Amino acid sequence: MAIDTILLAVGPMDTVRANGLAETVLETAKPLEASVVIGHAFTDHEYEEFRDDLGLEERVEHVDPDEVAENRPPVGDLVDRFEDAGVDYEIRGALGDVSDEVVDMARAVDADRIVLGGRRRSPAEKAVLGSVSQDILLQSPCPVTYYRDLDVME
Q: Which band of pLDDT confidence, cut at 50, 70 and 90, is reported for residue 154?
């Protein structure tokens, strides 16, 4: 199976592991000349929490998710890395249930691979709080590379 499109799914916790995620994507994208979609999905509640920090005035009903994603960390750092490496990329945002939106985004861009990061959680935490990463792994329409940052383990 050829890899033409890689979806790098990021969220607010990925700022600390942006370099590792970028390196993981570049290991595949650069030699295969694959394009990268930087995808940032967020909930209504998350948007309302960070819209002031981004200098956005729009309420969630009037927001362009792609525009929000462009301005949300760690997207800017990832853009710099992909531009420096000469890798084609685009930015996509989505508003809704994060795991569902990432899976839908993968389908929409016809992703051949998803790369996502995560942190260690106990089985009890996953049972009580759920796991976005696990939901994406189970629903994904393509193979998933899971980047676990050992320096950020809690």
A: very low
pTM above 0.85, yes or no: yes
Cα–Cα distance measured from residue 129 to residue 71, given in angstroms and rounded to the nearest whole number = 28
Of 37, 33, 57, the C-alpha closest to 47 is: 57
CATH of domain 5-152: 3.40.50.620
Angle at which helix 132-139 crosses helix 98-108, to 10 degrees, equals 40
Annotated domain spans of the chain: 5-152
* 34-38, 100-104, 130-134, 143-147: least confidently modelled range: 130-134
